[in-house]
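Lecture 7 notes: from sequence to structure.

We start with a single chain of 381 residues. Read the sequence below before looking at the structure.
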Amino acid sequence: MDNVDSTTRNAFLRDFSAAQDYVNAGVVPSRTKAANSTWGRWATFCTDLAIDPLLNELEDPVALIQVFAHRYRTGDIAPSGRGVRSRTVEDAVRHVAQTFSSVGSRDPRLNDDGKMDFRLKRQLAAYTREDPPPSRVKPIPVQLILHILAAAYACTDVGSIAITQMAALAFFFLLRPGEYTSSPSDTTPFTLQDVQLFIGVYRLNLVTASEAEIHLATFGTLTFTTQKNGVKGEVIGLGRSHHPQLCPVKILIERVIHLRRHNAPPSTPLATFYNADGLHKVKPSDITDVLRAACRILGPALGLAPGDISARSLRAGGAMALLIAKVDTDIIQLIGRWQSDVMLRYLTTQAEPVMRDFAQRMVYHGAFVLHPSPTTMNMPF
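Now the structure, written as tokens:
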């Protein structure tokens, strides 16, 4: 670039900077922030050892990466200052390696064949074996949602109703907390303009339709815009459940009408409500608090403790309800926008209806005869 004129050089540098911005935008902001933070820890780690963070002077950088991974594992250089799980260590090492790749340098984790170095691979595998069992939230049974809805409607508090309605929508549409609450996540919550309501096949204009018309809706949809793992423009819809309170269409109707009455703009999140104090947003902690309060009452009968559940449990609860209803797991995965079989981690065989008749079915269907193989046919007995 030294041999080109300043105008050409400046234009190149400007476009290169723009390209780097797009590289960073290729992942969610929290991922970029985590990568930058990890690289800072790597640079400090190397500087303390008087080693160039770009490893220009090392022929075999794996030993250095192993020590970095070990100190991250023990918490010596982890952000929390505490020991972390194997997945967190693996992510930290990957962030460092991706920074090398982003500037055109070789990934220091890989050997000459382009595969993970044997030493590092074994070390990470050992961490995985040492990890305690994962602590996962449990699915929310529908009884708990019915309870919080009934309590909210009985007290007629606008905030309580909004919180429980959003919990019910999360259950029906298998939503992540960032999709149905206001939270500092990488997922954008659904807004008023993402809702569509239909009477049969007739789509209502939610700006001009009367409240009487809106109350006649028989089908409701949410349109994905920037939600995590959602295909832009994809629409997911549900019909009426025919329950007087726990119905996705009825709840969407009430959310739309509430926001319309307060002249909320189309970009207003569904997880918003207005009362005498003004505008408020439903937070994940609001959902967790109301669920756990109900769990203190119903939990013992449902096999749940308050600490077992949180706002994240509703997605698993909806999926569990579909599983018990014998909906194919591929369909559940499709509805929940799971891109792998990770969904199965959140479904549990502890649910009695799932396992109720398995023993009986095994007794009645466990008898079979094997076709003899040639080796078996030639046995001398």
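The two ends are 85 Å apart (CA to CA). Keep this in mind for problem set 3.
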